[in-house]
Amino acid sequence: MRSALIVIDLANDFVYPGGVIADAGGAEYQKLAQAIIPRLERLVAAARASGIPVVYATDAHTNADSELRKWPPHAMKGTKLAAIVPQLTPQRGDLVIEKRTYSPFASSDIDAQLRKAGVERLYITGLHTDCCARHTSGDAFQQGYDLVWITDALAAFTDEAHRNGLEYFKAWYASDPARQLITTDQAIAEWTRLKTPAPPARRPASQPAAAKG
């Protein structure tokens, strides 16, 4: 099954001081958001090495966006705050989706792009477990994608909100939680197994030729 790694809202605005969302969350939240970056670096590198597409789905808002009736302007299109954090800078071949709502499925052509690439399984990571990752998961589930959540590469404003988000995935979208809620190490191990070709089957030892009478 063709897979893709989805990295949600790892923009400067969500992670570092000076960002609207980051400052709203405060220092403790910023620690939680920044803590997943080393794991995401490993995941992105492993996905690329295994031929798994890396998809960045990140806010790039305009003043006309309905979401800004709920939240103050943040991650505005074309600004430094809307840029993906430097540790995860997209590389050639990655897919960068600018979204204007919680879920990229509601405000971009991500579904068409994934279908074109033959993707059927999505590994979900990023921010926030109980909001944009949740809405993205809901839309992807309704579209028939197989979902896997990398639990230690997701974060929310609090650990409690993160845990609640994971429980929501398990309750409403997961059909096999043991397979679908995994860690960074487990995901990388899966991808490594897929990348490593199986050893060739051993041929039976040749039999000595029968003596001619």
Measure the end-to-end span.
57 Å
Order of helices and strands: EHHHEEHEHEHHEH
Question: Which architecture name does CATH use?
Answer: 3-Layer(aba) Sandwich
Structural domain count: 1
Number of helices: 8
Radius of gyration: 21 Å
The CATH class, by name, is Alpha Beta
Q: What integer is the average pLDDT? A: 93
- Biggest beta sheet summary: 6 strands, parallel
What would the principal axes of the Cα set say about the shape? Answer: globular
Task: Let me know the CATH homologous superfamily.
Answer: Isochorismatase-like
Q: Which range does the strand content fall in?
A: 15-25%
Report helical residue fraction: 25-40%
Structural class: alpha/beta
Q: What is the CATH topology assignment?
A: Rossmann fold
Low-confidence spans: 204-213
Total E-strand runs: 6
Strand order of the largest sheet: 3-2-1-4-5-6
What's a concise summary of this model?
This protein is of the alpha/beta class. The protein has helices at 12-15, 20-35, 37-49, 110-116, 132-142, 159-172, 177-180, 184-195, and strands spanning 3-8, 54-59, 95-99, 121-127, 146-155, 181-182. Helix 5 (132-142) links the parallel strand 4 and strand 5 (146-155).
How would you characterize the overall build of this protein?
There is one protein chain. This protein is α/β, with parallel strands linked by helices. The protein has a single domain (3-195), classed as 3-Layer(aba) Sandwich (Rossmann fold). It contains 8 helices and 6 strands; from the N terminus they run E-H-H-H-E-E-H-E-H-E-H-H-E-H. Strands 3-2-1-4-5-6 form a 6-stranded parallel beta sheet, sandwiched between helices. The chain is globular, with a radius of gyration of 21 Å.
